[in-house]
Design brief:
This protein is α/β, with parallel strands linked by helices. It has 14 helices and 17 strands. The protein has two domains: 135 residues, Aspartate Aminotransferase, domain 1 (Alpha-Beta Complex), CATH 3.90.1150.10; 255 residues, Type I PLP-dependent aspartate aminotransferase-like (Major domain) (Aspartate Aminotransferase, domain 2, 3-Layer(aba) Sandwich), CATH 3.40.640. Bound molecules: ligand 7TS.
């Protein structure tokens, strides 16, 4: 059923060597590698279908439009949205979050209104809200976390006031791997009359995410982290909420009728999709979602959880190992420092052994500050990684640490 050897054959890049060593790719939280079917779908569409969508009467344009809209339906099913109108294509999580900050911010937030974030957010779920704070004078409140890496839910409840309009939280931390209890947190937000956004950048690739089950108002994710191409992402929004939000950008595609005096906008989701969309990317993303669905999201989750558990166990063997994020059920990410070795040195030396990890602040500087460090090293797993690769990582770290 879940045959790793066969699965790895689907990803040609995994057969590569770097510095004459087999590539061990453990930077999947940054971006995942692409299966052959995704790359072929991109080539195939450019070779034989390419035409701009939603505007041509001609055959190719119709076919490209069908692929693009089929892809939207595919995304809708994948996250269990109620309607394809709730699926807005964007460039990725970052653009989805900026869209919500700009448009929801315009429609729903006044000076003094409050948005709640968590201390473990990626910068892309912090800075758009700060930009809005500069424009509108909103107030940002932050959910703290405990030593292990769990958000403090008791403090969370105390942050609400009658001015709280929105809560935006990562489903899974890209550093700690903490799986935040967003279903429960959304219930709390709704109890206080606030909306709830889930940043699914690090959850959608790893386990089944169902927007109706979570009962979230928004969900964001990036195609490139779920085995799809770069440059395509998704904003899910509850239809009645999206209806009440103004357009994000103006241009073609998003209008119903334009005169110099007055312009009316297209229906959802096109109101939020100004300009020529990445219709090749959307189709390739759908192919990627089909691919993970064929493997089974539950199988992928089980495999990655087992790898993470194994990696945490083996990492603890290493002298002076400091692990960040030790929550129960943590997902596919292991962040660490070893003694006083600078994470950049560690990453550079591991790279020479063919091991690709990420080092630095991981676009989460407030979290680094909370942990009292400038940076960390991070290994992150995908559906194709193996225990043998974890062993190579552990032996690599031991070797580097002997050098220091
Ligand atoms: N939110 C989370 C939780 C993320 O992990 C990332 C990217 C983003 C948002 C932004 O996604 P983008 O596709 O728009 O860039 N995280 C990482 C990472 O951990 N290493 O590189 C990118």
């Amino acid at each position: 059923m879940y045959n790793l050897e066969e699965i790895r054959q689907d990803f040609p890049i995994l057969g590569r060597q770097v510095y004459n060593r087999p590539l061990v790719y453990l930077d999947n939280a940054a971006t995942t590698q692409k299966p052959r079917c995704v790359v072929e779908a991109i080539a195939e569409e450019y070779y034989s279908v390419n035409a701009n969508v939603h505007r041509g009467v001609h055959y190719l344009s119709q076919q490209a439009t069908d692929l693009h809209e089929d892809a939207r339906n595919r995304v809708k099913d994948f996250i269990n949205a109620r309607s394809a109108a709730e699926v807005v294509f964007t460039r990725g999580t970052t653009e989805s979050l900026n869209l919500v900050a700009a448009s929801f911010g315009e429609a729903f937030l006044k000076e003094g209104d409050e948005v709640i974030l968590s201390v473990m957010e990626h910068h892309s779920n912090i800075v758009p809200w700060q930009l809005l704070r500069e424009r509108k004078g909103i107030v940002i409140k932050v959910i703290p976390m405990d030593e292990v890496g769990n958000l403090c839910l008791d403090v969370y409840e105390t942050l609400f006031s009658e001015r709280t309009k929105l809560v935006c939280v990562a489903h899974v931390s890209n550093v700690l791997g903490t799986v935040n209890p967003v279903e429960e947190m959304a219930r709390t937000a709704h109890k206080y009359g606030a909306f709830f956004l889930v940043d699914g950048a690090q959850s959608v690739p790893h386990f089944k995410v169902d927007v109706q089950q979570l009962n979230c108002d928004f969900l964001t994710f990036s195609g490139h982290k779920v085995y799809g191409p770069t440059g395509i992402g998704v904003l899910y929004g509850r239809e009645e909420l999206l209806e009440r939000m103004p357009p994000y950008q103006g241009g073609g595609e998003m209008i119903a009728r334009v005169t110099f005096e007055h312009t009316t906008y297209e229906r959802l989701p096109y109101k939020f999709e100004a300009g020529t969309p990445d219709y090749v990317g959307s189709h390739a993303l759908a192919v990627a979602l089909d691919y993970v669905t064929r493997l089974g999201m539950d199988n992928i989750a089980a495999h990655e959880r087992e790898l993470t558990r194994y990696a945490m166990k083996r990492m603890r063997e290493i002298d002076s190992m400091k692990l960040y994020g030790e929550t129960v059920g943590k997902d596919a990410v292991v962040a660490f420092n070893v003694g006083d070795i600078h994470p950049l040195d560690l990453g550079t030396l591991l790279d020479r052994l063919g091991i690709a990890i990420r080092t630095g602040h991981h676009c989460a500087q407030p979290l680094m500050a909370r942990c009292g460090v400038e940076g960390m090293a991070r290994a992150s797993f995908a559906l194709y990684n193996t225990k043998e690769e974890v062993d190579v990582l552990v032996e690599g770290i031991k070797r580097v640490s002997r050098m220091f």
